[in-house]
Amino acid sequence: MTILTTPGERANPARTVPDTPGRGTPGGLAGAIASEWTKLFSVRASYLCLLAGLAITGVFTYYYASIARINEHPVQPVGNAAASSAVLVQFAVVVLATVAVTSEYSTGSVRVSLLSVPRRHVIQAAKALVAAVVAFVAGTTFAVVGTAVAWVAFDGRASFEAGPSLLQVLAIGLYQALVAVLTVGVAFATRHPAGALSVLVTLLWALPSVLLGLGGPALADVNDHLPHGSGDHLMRLGAEAPYTPATAVLIVAAWAATAHLIGLCVLRRRDA
Length: 272
Fold this sequence. Notes:
Blueprint: E1 2-3, E2 16-17, H1 28-40, H2 44-70, E3 76-77, H3 79-107, H4 110-116, H5 120-154, E4 158-159, H6 162-190, H7 193-214, H8 217-224, H9 227-235, H10 245-270
Parallel strand pairs: 3-4
Antiparallel strand pairs: 1-2
């Protein structure tokens, strides 16, 4: 409501008219998303994470394809190089999504955010959606670049089909988006970058490495139900998998949803 006055006249609360529709910033989830988008790209860390992910993709996929060519591995889909690089590239997404949450706790600006968006689930959902969209676009971009680099390095020891390659690029982007949502939930639960990164490095890399290193069908089955284990089955083409790609998506999504709910419970109980 806008108060109407004339020079020298006190504001009369009774003389009000509604604000013009469309004026000001949007509210609710749309406003929160717009705010989170602005905040994410107002810091250098976001750009550095994306550039780091691009660089890691280029180096890893070239190395992967070169080793396959030198050792005369069987011909495989060229996109498998980009899928394999996700074991490292995912941490560029992890750091980006972690910074989106924990930077506000470290500076105290989270209080302003929570005052602006009192509904806790809305602000968490906005951060998760923005991080997921950025991660999906970045993941698909990394996959396209990695596929192109690997095609050169494979030098004939890889196959390429437009349809399956497109699906593989989208699968890589989807996995990175789910990792971003998982990260936002963990970051809200821990509220500290070191704590969040410790949990995520353990879950996405250290634990799978230990399970696969020890070997055995039982441990392999456990790894198949961890986020990166199921994500790896989703992203690779021509590899044997214990379940369908749809099941792989559901497993990673379940991990992301669980982390999201835990983070929301912590946010509601401990607030800022």
